[in-house]
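We treat protein structure as text, and this decision shapes the records that our systems exchange. Because each token names a local backbone shape, the row as a whole describes the fold. For reference, a complete record is included directly beneath this paragraph.
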Amino acid sequence: MATWAELEAGAPELAARGKELLYRSGEGEALMVTVRGDAPPQAHPIYVRVVDGGLYAFILKSPKLTDLLEDGRYALHAHFDPAKPNEFLVSGRVRRVDGDVRARLAADWGFSPGDAPAFEFLIGEALFGERPTADDWPPRYTTWKPPA
């Protein structure tokens, strides 16, 4: 697994274009999919931020929090815009962050996270799909995985 900073170092254009899609509305927004045991995958809209070389989110008490605490696997997809149909996806595992890191994130977050736990999204794979228009198919995919 890799940090966002390692993605930026290993695939700078992919990271920059992915970050642009995550922040297309001005806020870091994505759709996160979680899994747990034999339960079906669950999709959840969340707010994310790239801070100090990490990709982070606060996760409020919910089934997605339970999934992350019990399993830790995720897939995170930037919201889709039919007018600009490029795609960005990262997947991997989360790690909970506490102490000074959590406090620093909470101080500059877009909402008050209260006591919600903070997670860093570690990246096992990143993917960027490019389509000049909604009529162009299939996308041209670029992928990145951290070195073994």
